[in-house]
């Protein structure tokens, strides 16, 4: 069985008195595609932010690749995120002032890849996602669906160990959504990328190896996990 890449151990996080995530144990292995489903407000995005080390848990632990992440200082967590993780978040952190290709090559540039090879790799990704013609347009000047494809291209460009995606096909038509899902599933199959995707759509979840159901901040169904009663 492939090694465990991501793990939460009894992780909890509240906002005020409200627990958004409540004692969650989740394990994701290399090459696994896990869909996280559940009603609006059930804690899916908060769980993703905890796994990314963007939010710190009130209690419990988050582990990445055999190392505890949640108790590291922010700069160390940021380094792990940049080097080993790719993100597709709902309120994307793409830079509107940069062009599409500049956004996609950004992780590579931040990791020290030379300008020419970062550009070549980013253009290759744009081609795969059918947005090569938008390469030199500012992100603020492309459609929501094109920006979403750029976000997924950027999440994969540096071949991360993990991709965390919050509704990665939310603003895409069915065909383009399938293209994006096939790229994510392809990264898992070819490079052992672990993919965690939050979705409301059964069609999207059907691409996953495993569906985890979250309700009121707790995992209520997980085919491989111990589900608390
Ligand atoms: N930064 C925050 N400050 C205060 N409350 C928050 C914050 N983030 C999330 N919450 C609350 O935590 C709970 C879980 O929210 P979360 O966004 O994780 O749910 P979700 O399942 O991702 O919802 P959706 O499907 O609508 O995106 C909600 O009650 C939400 O209002």
Automatic annotation (TrEMBL):
PANTHER family: ABC TRANSPORTER RELATED, IMPORT ATP-BINDING PROTEIN. Residues 6-229 form the ABC transporter domain. It comes from the Bacteria. Keywords: ATP-binding, Nucleotide-binding, Transport. GO terms for cellular component: membrane protein complex; plasma membrane. This is ABC transporter related. One of its GO terms (molecular function) is transmembrane transporter activity. It holds the Pfam family ABC_tran. InterPro entries: AAA+_ATPase (IPR003593), ABC_transporter-like_ATP-bd (IPR003439), ABC_transporter-like_CS (IPR017871), ABC_transpr_LolD-like (IPR015854), MacB-like_ATP-bd (IPR017911), P-loop_NTPase (IPR027417).
């Amino acid at each position: 069985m492939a090694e465990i890449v991501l793990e939460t151990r009894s992780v909890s996080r509240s906002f005020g008195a409200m627990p958004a995530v409540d004692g969650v144990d989740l394990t994701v292995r290399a090459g696994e595609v896990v869909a996280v489903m559940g009603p609006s407000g059930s804690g899916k995005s908060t769980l993703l932010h905890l796994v990314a080390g963007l939010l710190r848990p009130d209690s419990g632990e988050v582990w990445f690749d055999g190392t505890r992440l949640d108790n590291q200082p922010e700069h160390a967590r940021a380094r792990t995120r940049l080097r080993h993780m790719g993100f597709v978040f709902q309120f994307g952190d793409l830079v509107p002032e940069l062009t599409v290709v500049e956004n996609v090559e950004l992780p590579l540039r931040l990791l020290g890849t030379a300008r020419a090879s970062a550009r070549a790799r980013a253009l290759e990704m744009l081609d795969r996602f059918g947005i090569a013609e938008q390469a030199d347009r500012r992100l603020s000047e492309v459609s929501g669906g094109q920006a979403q494809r750029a976000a997924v291209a950027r999440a994969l460009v540096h071949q991360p160990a993990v991709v965390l995606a919050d509704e990665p096909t939310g603003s895409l038509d069915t065909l383009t959504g399938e293209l994006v899902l096939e790229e994510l599933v392809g990264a898992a199959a070819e490079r052992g990328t672990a993919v965690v995707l939050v979705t409301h759509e059964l069609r999207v979840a059907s691409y996953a190896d495993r569906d985890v159901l979250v309700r009121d901040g707790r995992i209520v169904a997980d085919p491989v996990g111990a589900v608390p009663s």
